[in-house]
Structure formats: structure tokens, C-alpha cells
Amino acid sequence: MSFNLKALPLAISVAMLPALAVANDATDEKLAKLEQQVKSLQKQQTANLADKFNFNGFISVGYLSANNSAGYNNATTSANFEEDSKLGFQGTFNISDQTQAVMQLMMRGENDWDVEAEWAYISHRFDNGIQARAGKLRVPLFMYSDYLDIGYAQPFARPPLEVYGQIPFSSYTGGDISYDVEFDDSTLTLQGFGGQSEAEEDVALLDFSNLVGANLSWTDLTWTLRAVYGQASLEGYLKDETGSPIMGIDDEKATFTGVGASYDNGSFLAATEWTAVKVDGLLADTESAYLTVGYRIESFTPYVTVAYLKTTDEDFRSALPPQIGVPLGLALNRERTAYSLGLRWDAIDNVALKFDVTYANDFGDTGGDLESNDYNPLTGEFMYDSTTVYSVKIDAVF
What we know:
Elements: H1 2-52, E1 53-66, E2 86-94, E3 99-108, E4 115-125, E5 131-138, H2 161-164, E6 171-182, E7 187-200, E8 204-219, E9 223-239, E10 245-264, E11 268-279, E12 286-295, E13 300-311, H3 314-318, H4 322-332, E14 335-348, E15 351-361, E16 375-376, E17 381-382, E18 387-397
Antiparallel strand pairs: 1-2, 1-18, 2-3, 3-4, 4-5, 5-6, 6-7, 7-8, 8-9, 9-10, 10-11, 11-12, 12-13, 13-14, 14-15, 15-18, 16-17
């Protein structure tokens, strides 16, 4: 009896082995199914996240030189591969069907390839069609403002500096609101914007507060017409060559007015803009415009551009006492006409090669708004009365 009692547990264990094996197999099967479900869920979540996120980029690589060192687009007689070179990445995250978060990171050769956020905003489209955005946005003053850094989206090697170089900032922090009015074959867009910005140049440090404006644009995908008005309160100071303040600017009103039009039927293209900048106080008022025409011949698009820039308030500074008016006139008065002849070659998909020659003259009694065109007080003249700039550029999107 004693032997049987001792052997009973062993007998029971041996008898349960098949059942335990079946149980282990069932557990392993359940664990495998659970792991498969987890992997499937993770894959689905990753796919959903990928569907919500869109990523693209653009790059420009440019060569620049000139026949002298007047400084048009910072060109000199030496080869410059940095001024027109840039790399950008833009990501869009679809928070919902109506809400997006957008960020655009830029690296420019002229800024030692430092990373900076050009765009960083949240956008929401309401059921009534109104779209609102808030964050860091591109200031919508020009026809090519939204594509200012995307050279591939522009017909020329660069937007005409006579017009696009008169506003010292390209982005602002604030918001905008827009609404599209749809017609049978065209769209009218109304947009209002507001915020603040700042800019530092060789001759000034400026803060733009209470920035507000509106623009109106109409397009039927062949013709585009637009008008814009903006204003801001301007503070800061002018500075000398060492960076020291020489004149303060205290809450001066600055206004911008612009009109533009473009035509593109797939073969012939034309674009033009006219702008006027007015600033209270001693800072210069300017007027500028350009006209570009081109014609597509298969993958080639030759184009010509004529542009001008001039100050419109020289009389105000010339009426000041000479000890104030003369140095202000030398620093602020500007006048220039530029003629560009270029060729765009769409070599392969998403890649364009551009060649451009720009000749600038008609500086009048000014330095032509060229930073390196120094004034010689002994001769009473500026160093250069014209300049020719040569550009080769590769623009691509991906």
C-alpha cells in the first residue's frame, strides 16, 4: 500500500503530460495570433500616419559672377556658388480632413547653410469655405511670394531684384484668412493678413509691428490678376559701416501697394508687377516694376525681362540742410534699370537648367542700390555706373 501511494503522484503526472502539451500548444497559438494582431495594428497605424503626412523638397544650385564688383545680387568678378544656392524641405501633416500643420525648413548658401523655419503654421478650412492660418507665414506681397525660394516654379533665374528686393523681410509671424469665390471658369480669392516681422540689413535694423494688409487675386488658369495693400509701424535705426546707430526710427508708418498680372497659355508667357513703398519720415519712398515675356519651344523657354527701380522723394532730402540731406541722399537715393536675357531648359522631369545675363545701368546720381558701389567724395562720383551679371542655375523639386 505504501508503494502504491508513493507512485500515485508520478502516475498522475505522467497521465497529465498529453493534456499539458495540448494546453501549451494552444497558448503558443494564442500568443502567435496576438503578436500577429499587434503587428497588423502597428502596420495599420503606420500606414494611417503615412497617409496623413506629405513630404517634399526643392533645391537650387547656382553659379554667379559679374564683370565688376558693384554687388548686383552680391556678384563680383569671382565665382560665387552660394548666393543663389539653397535647399528646402516642406512637411504637411493632415491633422484632420480640414486641418493641417505645415513646416518649411530652409538652408541658404548665403547664410552658411544655417537651418531656419521659413513656414511653420496651422491651417483650418471651415465648412463655409473660409481658410484660416496662424503661425509663421510668407508675407503675400508679390505674385511669386509663395514660391519665392522654389526656383523651379519660376520662369526666370531669380525674381527681378528691382521689385522683390525692396522689402527686407519675406516672412512674418501672425495669421491670415482667405476665401475663394468660385465662378464657372475662374476663381476670385480674397485674403487678409496681419502680424509682425523684423529685418536686419547692412544699413538698418528694423522692426515691423501692426502689420496688416489685404490682397485680391483672380485667375482662370491662363490669366491672373492681383492687387495688394499692406501697412506697418516701423521702428529701429539706420547704422553706419561699423554697425553703430546713426539715426533712430520711431513708430513711422510704412505702406506697400502692388498690382500684377500674368498670362500663360502653355506656349507664350508674360508676367508683370508694379509696386510702391512709402515710409513716413526720412526713409526713402520707392517705385519699381518689371515685365517678363517668354516662349516655350518644346523643353526650352527663352525669356527677356526689363525692370526698373527709383526713389520718388529725393526732393525731400535735397531740401534738408546739407549736413543731413547730402549723406542721407547718398545712402537712400536709388535708381536703376536692368535688362535680362535668359533661357530655361527643362532637361528632365522636375529639373530645370537656367542661363541668365543681366545688365544694369541708369543709376543717375545714385549708387544704383548696390551695396558695393562706393561713393568717392574726391571725384563726387560712384565707383560703377553699370554692371553685367552672369548666372547659371539648376532648380529641382522632389
